[in-house]
Specification:
CATH class: Alpha Beta
Largest sheet: 8 strands, parallel
Number of strands: 8
Mean pLDDT: 97
Shape: globular
Helix content: 40-55%
Oligomer: single chain
Number of helices: 10
CATH architecture: Alpha-Beta Barrel
Distance between the termini: 14 Å
Length: 275
Amino acid sequence: MYKLSVYEKAMPGHIGWKEKLNAAKEAGYDGVELSVDESDERLSRLDWSAAQRLDLLRASRETGVRLPSLCLSGHRRYPLGSRDPETVRRGMAILEKAVRLAGDLGIRLIQLAGYDVYYEPSAPDTAARFAENLHHAVALAAAYGVTLGFETMETPFMNTTAKAMTHIRREKSPYLQIYPDIGNITNAVPDAVRDLQSGRGHIAAAHLKETRPGVYRDLYYGEGEVNFSAVIRELMRQGVRLYTAEFWYREGTDWRRELSRARTFLQERFTEAEA
């Protein structure tokens, strides 16, 4: 048994929540992963009113489509390892608001981008600052009963499960785990399965994303080189049961058809993994 959600950005941004959730349901997904990225529009979700939060909860309950996770990539713009104190302050405020939003929506897992910095050069001082602020972030999440899951990124700072485990071992908190991006790991190491094995017992969920060398996004399934069957087999062996299909809406495409096609593709990979 497993649950497969779809990344919100696989659907057009202008449509309403009820339409998004119904489209996901019709395509066979169990849930939709909410996105809070670095754009002002998405960051403003952190300041939703009680009525706006209730509207999304109501849509989720009416459609039967869960909101299992929140992808918090807003820290690309406001990273916790920044040399600018104001940027760090904004980053911590974003995290606190995200944890509160997750709590209100019944979301128990926030995918935390594994960047010390993004628009600044990464160096030992940014890594140390990230680690220091991460400690406070984990304590905050724990107070709300929300788990932070590191996403393995496309940059060297944290592009593998093994690198994420450095922070997991230091924090020793049940509220800090790993939410690996399978595509990013595939581009980072020769053996993605072996890398995932280093995180056994600490992988809360997984992003199933297609990549190929040098290309980290905007690919449909089958256009890249990720061995989904092998990584799913390993993750299932570890007891991981929560997955998200991560791909992006392309302007002018039949996005509903792509939702269904992606679901069918991944269903076949799960069947192969379980054989």
